[in-house]
Amino acid sequence: MPRVEYTAEQIKQIANEENVRFLRLMFTDIMGTIKNVEVPISQLDKVLDNKMMFDGSSIEGFVRIEESDMYLYPDVTTWMIFPWETDHGKVARLICDVYNPDGTPFAGDPRGNLKRSLKHMYDLGFTSFNLGPEPEFFLFKLDEDGEITTDLNDKGGYFDFAPTDMGENCRRDIVLELERMGFEVEASHHETAPGQHEIDFKYAEVIEACDNIQTFKLVVKTIARKHGLHATFMPKPLFGIAGSGMHCNMSLFKGEENVFFDENADKQLSETAYQFLAGLVEHARAYTAVCNPTVNSYKRLIPGFEAPVYVAWSGHNRSPLIRVPESRGLSTRLELRSVDPSANPYLAMAVLLEAGLDGIRRGLTPPPAVDRNIYVMTEEEREAAQIYDLPSTLHNALKQLRKDPTMVDALGDHIYGNFVEAKRMEWAAYRQSVSEWEREQYLELY
User: Is 282 a catalytic residue?
Assistant: First the structure.
């Protein structure tokens, strides 16, 4: 969705004409949760002057209480009025970067951290990194008290339609709301599992694309609630059916030129594309902790449900980690299939960009493409083909992350330290819990 560089005066005029009464100043914490400070429109001048302060110590992973003052610097290109009205007038939003009181970018701001990675990209002569995400989600019914149930609202399957796909009306309303907000929706369909849906929107420059993912999640949850449903981006909410992924289609540009495309090369992929691909392969086990950041993420990364389990790539095979879609020219791209929608998009794209740039800097060569079904290969065959497993648990993924200086640097000291500590605590809590499965297996037997 093309962005406009609004002036302060234009924003004030639009707010007045559209009866905007409240302003949401949105940012994202280290865990990927959207946060916002809501202010009356009377504070607009203060907001646009970068003088809006908030308590950073109240946000997980930001700062300690003795250094709590932080400032929100709005990105005026993200000005948008939500299409749903409240009883008190309209609500607009601005997505913000987080700054320290001395006017320097806050090291714990995921959006600001991604901008740091983009500077490394510019230093290598590239002008933009584009992302086309494919987020999936489930719709569950709410009970009469508005509480979330585990009852799905349909029995549909891949590309099904009504009456099997009972979520069609909700999904259609989500698409209409997104289009009102300027999204260019490319596809909307039922996914493989009952209750599972996918809405794809047009690729954009990576900061804008990550902003779009966060806005998308907010819209999906808001509209689902109006239909008496709960939308969840949890990677694997139910046993025995496919989980939700967020495939990431990535490309590098120099001006108007897609540098992944070379008409005369093997598979029409440039040397730069192969080097970027090699970087994604090289660092795959380390960035998994960031791209699949929850205990539940690893319930999705198992054989049999289309999610990747092995570090490999292919031109058309859908079982490896990385696929090269058939489109060429400006649409030439690499598709990473492991990412799930619980990931913080800003952090995920920072580590993926840095992984690819490392491949370019070092002139890495990827292993040979794997064009057969990896799931039916023996362990010996996989080893001979240089195919390695992704980490099987969050704990193992964190160990791989710690061993990879490039991926640690991609997060920066502040984010890395707080992210790993939070995830260690999550793993410790999970290890201590006793599941229903364990009681069913062992309570009577032992």
Answer: no
